[in-house]
């Protein structure tokens, strides 16, 4: 072997003592390692590098799994909410463990925060996160049982992918899983819509209304227990009103009979508190052409005879009242009588009620009766003061003691009076000859007039004579009946805002109700039921809203 074989020569100027290695043959120090040592060091470097690469690969794989799971569960991080399903601020977050490791045994108890709080273990309670596959249908009501694969909110320290997933998500997560079957919502009742034809009663009506027959002329009235009335329902049913009998005692639908020659009268259909018919009987007989009238604030009914020399009769439909069996003539008609139509009451001062009476004649004056003594039953039978409406062309009016001046004013301004109502210092009454609605401001002593049905919205048409009118409980709606025409109906006038008219229902255009008149408009005490019918057809109907709301 050459003298320098197997070892590296030192650079010029270097000393053997500078190298930590010894020459194997000479035992002297050398500046370079042996071949075996060099390979050992190289292998250590490779091993260390492999460990680093393995650790990085594992970290990337874990991150990939977390991101993939987040995408599968909706593509968005869980939103922390409270029990009202509104987002929580950071100060509201509950104390939770910082550990991400699940417990060894999953809990079967529902989470305290089922709407999306992260927990360290899976739960059988449904998560607020949407499922990866939508339910077959949506429902407004929560499902009584969870879906087959409820998901849990899984916390993560890695932000989920901002890109949307291919799986559809629900628009708004809920705290309960969606029901498999949809809950049917009631059809909304819309004023002015005539989308449904009721062939049985020959009417067009909104789909949001349900209709049932209450009574029919010449037939016995059917009671809720299946029995029938002893009397046949009266002929020529006309104006009506509802009188409550007391808390829990139901109410009475009081209806006139417009039969002439002493064969008219007043009858009552009795309802229990749930609106079911329980009785029907006569309340007044022997009178003629009982047409209009009105309910008093003390729960009695005034019935007016529309006949020459007719009077206004006072009826108490409450069987427990001392006046129930003794209807009496009131002071309203005066000694001469007349063709009276309807009655309204200003009860703003209960100690001095004021009664207004219309008369259905071309010169039928509107009269005002101010009771002299108190209120209640006696207020209509004791003395009082009667005056008459006098209108002026400048939009003002006065009350005159001259009946003749009142007749002249009626012939000039408001011939053929019909229904009348009092509401909030104003008097609303109809003159059918010229189809006018008059509104008297009793405080300002002014009036205005409008043509009924002229400002109309929706389907149908209110283009014949206005008849009776009542207010709903909100006083925002006034309901009116119609006399004559091919399709008589019941209409609603929106008060104080647009003063627009809408159809509630009307007769079909097949001629079944041609020339008839709608009658008997009234509301139950809870305002959930509207009663009305047709005089010639002889039917009284009940209308209820499918959405369960009262008539406004």
Helix content: under 10%
Low-confidence stretches: 1-35, 69-180
Overall shape: elongated
Tell me the number of strands.
Answer: 31
Treating each run of at least 4 consecutive H or I residues as one helix, how many helices? 2
Distance between the termini: 121 Å
User: How much is the average pLDDT?
Assistant: 79
| Assembly state (oligomeric) | single chain
Rg (CA only): 44 Å
- Which structural class best describes the helix and strand composition? mainly beta
Side-by-side strand order of the widest sheet: 3-4-28-27-26-25
Largest sheet: 6 strands, antiparallel
Provide keyphrases for this structure:
elongated; disordered N terminus; 552 residues; 6-stranded antiparallel beta sheet; 2 helices; mainly beta
Give an overview in words:
This protein is mostly beta strands and 552 residues long. It has helices at residues 35-72, 403-413, and strands at residues 21-22, 29-30, 196-198, 203-205, 209-216, 220-222, 228-232, 237-244, 251-257, 264-271, 277-287, 290-295, 301-305, 312-315, 328-329, 340-346, 354-359, 367-371, 384-391, 397-400, 417-423, 426-431, 436-441, 446-451, 465-471, 477-483, 489-494, 501-507, 518-523, 529-534, 539-545. A six-stranded antiparallel beta sheet has the order 3-4-28-27-26-25, with no helix packed on it. A five-stranded antiparallel beta sheet has the order 16-17-18-19-20, with helices on one face. The radius of gyration is 44 Å and the shape is elongated. The N and C termini lie far apart (121 Å). The model is unreliable at 1-35 and 69-180 (pLDDT under 50).
């Amino acid at each position: 072997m050459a003298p320098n074989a197997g070892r590296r020569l030192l650079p010029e100027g270097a000393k053997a003592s500078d190298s930590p290695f010894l020459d194997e043959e000479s035992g002297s120090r050398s500046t370079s390692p042996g071949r075996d040592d060099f390979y050992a060091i190289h292998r250590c470097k490779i091993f260390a590098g492999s460990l680093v690469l393995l650790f990085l690969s594992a970290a990337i794989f874990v991150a990939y799994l977390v991101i993939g799971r987040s995408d599968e569960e909706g593509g968005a991080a869980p939103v922390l909410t409270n029990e009202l399903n509104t987002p929580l601020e950071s100060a509201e977050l509950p104390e939770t463990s910082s550990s991400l490791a699940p417990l060894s045994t999953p809990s079967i108890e529902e989470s305290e925060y089922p709407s999306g709080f992260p927990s360290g273990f899976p739960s059988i309670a449904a998560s607020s996160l949407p499922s990866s596959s939508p339910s077959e249908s949506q429902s407004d009501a929560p499902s009584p049982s969870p879906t087959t694969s409820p998901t849990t909110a899984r916390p993560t320290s890695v932000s989920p992918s901002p890109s949307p997933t291919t799986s559809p998500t629900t628009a708004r997560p809920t705290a309960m899983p969606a029901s498999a079957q949809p809950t049917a919502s009631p059809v909304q009742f819309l004023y002015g819509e005539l989308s449904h034809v009721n062939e049985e009663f020959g009417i067009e009506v909104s789909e949001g209304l349900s209709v049932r027959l209450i009574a029919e002329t010449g037939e016995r009235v059917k009671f809720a227990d299946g029995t029938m009335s002893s009397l046949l329902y009266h002929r020529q049913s006309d104006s009506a009103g509802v009188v409550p009998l007391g808390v829990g005692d139901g109410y009475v639908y009081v209806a006139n009979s417009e039969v002439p020659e002493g064969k008219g009268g007043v009858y009552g259909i009795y309802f229990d508190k749930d609106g079911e018919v329980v009785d029907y009987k006569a309340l007044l007989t022997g009178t003629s052409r009982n047409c209009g009238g009105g309910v008093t604030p003390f729960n009695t009914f005034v019935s007016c005879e529309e006949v020459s020399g007719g009077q206004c009769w006072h009826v108490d439909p409450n069987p427990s009242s001392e006046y129930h069996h003794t209807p009496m003539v009131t002071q309203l008609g005066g000694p001469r009588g007349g063709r009276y139509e309807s009655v309204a009451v200003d009860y703003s001062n209960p100690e001095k009620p004021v009664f207004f009476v219309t008369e259905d004649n071309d010169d039928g004056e509107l009269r005002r009766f101010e009771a002299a003594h108190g209120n209640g039953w006696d207020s209509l039978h004791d003395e009082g003061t009667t005056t008459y409406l006098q209108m002026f062309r400048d939009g003002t009016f006065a009350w005159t003691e001259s009946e003749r001046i009142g007749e002249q004013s009626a012939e000039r301004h408001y011939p053929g009076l019909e229904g009348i109502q009092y509401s909030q210092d104003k008097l609303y009454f109809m003159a059918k000859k010229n189809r006018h609605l008059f509104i008297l401001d009793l405080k300002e002593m002014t009036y205005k007039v409008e043509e009924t049905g002229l400002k109309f919205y929706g389907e149908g048409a209110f283009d014949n004579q206005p008849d009776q009118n009542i207010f709903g409980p909100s006083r925002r709606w006034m309901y009116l009946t119609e006399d004559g025409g091919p399709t008589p109906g019941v209409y609603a006038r929106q008060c104080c805002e647009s003063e627009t008219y809408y159809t509630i229902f009307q007769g079909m255009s097949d001629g079944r109700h041609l020339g008839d008149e709608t009658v008997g408009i009234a509301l139950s005490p809870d305002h959930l039921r509207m009663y009305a019918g047709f005089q010639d057809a002889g039917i009284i109907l009940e209308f209820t809203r499918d959405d369960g709301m009262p008539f406004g």
